[in-house]
Request: fold
Amino acid sequence: MAIPVQITFRDIDHSDAIEARIFERVKRLEKFAARATGLHVTLAAPHQSGHKGQIYQFTLELLMPKGDIVVKQGDTRNHAHEDVYVAMRDAFAALERRVHDHIEKRGP
Reply:
């Protein structure tokens, strides 16, 4: 079953390429979060005065039957997140770890 996904771009223009990469990560996530009932992805690029590059922030809210999982990535000190794809990779990796922990503690 496919996880319904809602994607919000905040302070950044919509990108088909970024959206496609998000759906690739969701397919991977579906393999072990099959009972998820939804995912809300928010990509933000707030103005960072005083910084040389734009830091991308991801918030992932995965809806699960036994409790939702929320991951916020985008530490302004991590300049690797000036690359939107690196920020996305890190956010989804954190979500995958949290899903594994969630399943171990509460069951599928």
